[in-house]
Amino acid sequence: MADFAQASAYWMTLRPCKDLPDEIKEGFLELMATSLKTARMYDQLVGELYKLLATSFSKEEIKETMQIVPEVEKLEHDVDVLETALLKKIFEYEDAIGGAGVCHLMGLVERVGALPTSAQVQPTA
Question: pTM score, two decimals?
């Protein structure tokens, strides 16, 4: 996840984002907040899984942990929806921000939107 955060921060340094329309700024703030909330929920889920190991997988603990999964899935979906809406908004302002600006912002949306999914626990073989 740190690599994705670093890539996002680096991408922001490549091109100044001056004079962006407020709708785009607000979209980025909302995307970032939801991405952060999703990443925190993943962290909570991993903590709960760790507790499961410590409690020898008690049925009550498993039930509590499983309740977190739909919340994480909903937040992931919310991030996807916000990404799509922000990309559409960026294209609406293409004349104002230019082609290079559109490409830059698209890359930034992609990187910020990937932050929470980079926190997913990947199964190992």
Answer: 0.80
